Amino acid sequence: MALFDEKQMQKKVRRSKKEVAATTLFDESNIENKKEIHRKKYKVKSSFIEIAPIIDITANGYFQLNHNEGYFEMVQLTSQDIYSLNESDKDKNIYTLAYFFQWYLNDVKFLPLNFPVDTSTQQQHIRRKLDKTIKKEYRLLLEQKLKELQFIEKERTNREYYLFIYADDEYTLTSRINHIERLLSVVLPVIRLNEEKKINILYKLFNLNSKNKTSKGDV
């Protein structure tokens, strides 16, 4: 029987090295890795256009998305009072919408937003009457009506519904908008928006905590 076994000695040496490594308090390799992580610098974007989701408005009034992600358009949907509809009209609306969702398989987004009620036209009309009215009793009625309109504009909002339509190019986007207009013409007639209104909607989306604007863009 051999008094000195090299294989057993080698196993003991390996075991002792593992135990020392496990009980080591400071590992220089870990420190070097942490230093490399701290030295790594992240590149800051040079301009806002590199992170902005929308980069341009085309001649057709469509919005061009960043990073070659295509184009989109927003339209307003004319809402209905579902509580005033009879059963046949309700069923017709349900079937029409069900057919729309079965037929249209591309990306769309339905967006409800609240905007202050715009009574500026009515207020101007009453102010013109106040300038021409001399009778005290009539002036009191007009002033009361003006205060009511101001209260409505300040405290109440209208719920408006919008539809976002997407496509890879402007030609396809125009075709999809026309198809959607035909499909929803009976249930939710589509209203085309001007550029100012669309920018107001985007402002609302990107500034959720800001003060609401009216449909015309006035604060």
Please give a quick description of this structure.
The protein is α+β, with helices and mostly antiparallel strands. It has helices at residues 6-22, 28-39, 87-103, 120-132, 136-155, 170-184, 195-206, and strands at residues 54-57, 63-65, 71-77, 108-116, 157-167, 190-191. Helix content is 48%, strand content 16%.
Q: Can you describe what's shown?
A:
The chain is of the alpha+beta class and 219 residues long. The chain has 7 helices and 6 strands. Strands 1, 2, 3, 4, 5 and 6 form a 6-stranded antiparallel beta sheet that branches. Strand 1 and strand 2 (63-65) form a beta hairpin. Helix 4 runs antiparallel to helix 5. The protein is extended. The mean pLDDT is 80.
What's the arrangement of secondary structure elements?
Blueprint: H1 6-22, H2 28-39, E1 54-57, E2 63-65, E3 71-77, H3 87-103, E4 108-116, H4 120-132, H5 136-155, E5 157-167, H6 170-184, E6 190-191, H7 195-206
Antiparallel strand pairs: 1-2, 2-3, 3-5, 3-6, 4-5
Keywords:
7 helices; 219 residues; single chain; alpha+beta; extended; six-stranded antiparallel β-sheet
Q: Taking all residues together, what is the mean pLDDT?
A: 80
User: What pattern of helices and strands is seen along the backbone?
Assistant: HHEEEHEHHEHEH
Class by alpha and beta content: alpha+beta
Number of helices: 7
Main sheet overview = 6 strands, antiparallel
Radius of gyration: 34 Å
Unreliable segments of 5+ consecutive residues: none
- What overall form do the CA principal axes indicate? extended
First-last Cα distance: 100 Å
Assembly state of the chains shown: single chain
β-sheet strand percentage: 15-25%
User: Percent range for helical residues?
Assistant: 40-55%
The total of beta strands comes to 6
